Amino acid sequence: MHIVDRRLNPSGKSLENRQRFLRRAKTLVQGAVKKASQDRDIKDVLEGGEVTIPLDGMNEPRFHREGGVRDRVLPGNKKFVEGDILQRPQSKGGGGNGAGEGDGEDAFRFVLSRDEFVDIFLDDLELPDLSKRKLAEVENEGLRRAGYTTSGSPANISVSRTVRRAMARRVALQRPRPEVIAQLEAELDHCSDDRRLELVAEIERLKSKIKRIPFIDPIDIRYRRFETVPKPVAQAVMFCLMDVSGSMSEHMKDLAKRFYMLLYVFLTRRYKKVEIVFIRHTDRAEEVDEQTFFHGPASGGTLVSSALETMHEIVQSRFRPADWNIYAAQASDGDNSYADSDRTGALLRDAILPVSQFFAYLEVGESGGHPFEMAESSLWTLYQRLRNEGEPLSMRKVNDRSEIFPVFHDLFQRRTGKEIAP
């Protein structure tokens, strides 16, 4: 989101304060969008809508003079004398029990389009630790210097090139120098009458020639030229691993699908070269398309290692780690076969995490409970142990729809350096 204030800087208000006000307004809008997103379905988020920000934060700062001694004359006072106690005036904002009188202030409401809403919502999100390994075939467009041109925007004028061409033109046309004319004018004071006539004629000729050969001519002006060129971008792949076994209730599956749908919107809107691989699993895993992943029915036992094995096989066959940035997001209720824990841990430690830029685990639970009051599942305990050993795992728990958006922002918010969300 970009707010551009093209108004002139008014008297009494500094530009720095105005810029600070614009940054605060942008922060308020972003907070309002995130708050409005918590109670919406994914499809409603994509449609934009009305958001509300408080008027208190929209007051533009200004300087006030305080202190000093002031004398005031208040005419017409026949009711009070010095020392009387004045009663507090009744509220006129309409906030009491009665109807109230006077003017009040409401919150500032406005409507955002679909693109504006989604862009603001995704403004501070990014894939963590995205590095340029092998450059992707699909490329963005960038600008590159492409010499000079005789027309263009005044902001792109090349002063050095213009002055150089003007100087070359003046030398080629033998434009008289001001120093020569100054010398001739100085000689007028010491010359004879015959010589004076010659000098005056020569000075007039040189001045006339100077007028015919301007210092800067329109044909001298050159503008910096830019052209659009393909710009390579890094390529990445996101693996979406979802548990669809019998232990996942409809509420849990709904939470997982909301998280993945939000992730899908984020990747498709922010990145041009990101492959998305959908893997769902019960006691066996399969790669599916987007429609099947979000809407296809499935049920059965639970073997988490089957999803990790499928991901490992796909990485080996299609996404060479030296060429691709590999990401993974897994959603599950935390249930897993006891006999499968060792296999799951070994796959993560030895095959998945060493080649991954980022691995996020989302554990979904039944509605009504606090995420941190849930009993630790077998999968959560396993992943927690791996994270304590130093493996780059990010783990979160959600029980309710309103928790999806804050957790998603927490996992994919923009960070600096190699910082990984814990």
Structural overview:
- Helix 7 links the parallel strand 5 and strand 6.
- The longest helix is centred in the N-terminal third of the chain and has 23 residues.
- Helices cover 36% and strands 18% of the residues.
- It has 12 helices and 10 strands.
- By secondary structure, the protein is of the alpha/beta class.
- It has 3 domains: 78 residues, no CATH class; 76 residues; 178 residues, von Willebrand factor, type A domain (Rossmann fold, 3-Layer(aba) Sandwich).
Annotated CATH homologous superfamily of the largest domain = von Willebrand factor, type A domain
Question: Any idea what the CATH architecture of the largest domain is?
Answer: 3-Layer(aba) Sandwich
Order of helices and strands: HHEEHEHHHEEHEEHHEHEHEH
What spatial order of strands do you see in the largest sheet?
7-6-5-8-9-10
Q: Which ranges are low-confidence, i.e. pLDDT below 50, for 5 or more consecutive residues? A: 94-105, 132-138
- As a percent range, the share of strand residues is 15-25%
In angstroms, what separates the terminal alpha carbons?
28 Å
What general form does the structure show?
flat
Q: How would you describe the oligomerization state of the chains in this entry?
A: single chain
Largest sheet: 6 strands, mixed
